[in-house]
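Example 3.2
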Amino acid sequence: MNDISALCVFCGSRPGNDPTHAQTAQELGKAIAVRKIRLIYGGGRIGLMGIVANTVFQHGGQVTGVIPEFLMNLEVGNDQVGDLIITESMHTRKAKMFELSDAIVILPGGLGTLDEAFEIITWKQLLQHDKPIALVDVNSYWGPFIKLVNSIVEGGFAHEKVKELFTVVDGVNGTFSALENALKPDQAVLTSHL
């Protein structure tokens, strides 16, 4: 995929204990802005998502946040950078973020980020999209996730090619080439168990 005009970034609403996570979020934000790619993100002003959005905005980039109304009511919405779309639920938030983007990058995060990662990868397994997905594996954060996916395959619950549904990179530098060179999903990821 060569033409990425809008990039969805899923990431934590907390910065994490390791300062490398915040540094990576800043690096990604700058890289997005430099490439003149619109950021699509969770709409929050806190955690890694706030860092990515603020960095894109500070470097002259375009930002679209998507946040459910209940989180906006908790005053975590970031209406200071770019556009903000308010949705009815978490489900409609994910669907809108997906709809607006050409590719997905996933930074470290909590349960919500894991939910987003599994759902977007599952949609690809079900051949509902072929958008590239990259996991930025800062300090081996995604190691347990990768181990779990391998275990799912080894246990006979998924086809070997589900491992090709996403690319793991160890930093921002490899992210955009991984997105550009991502494989299309093989039909076997869906049809092998039907």
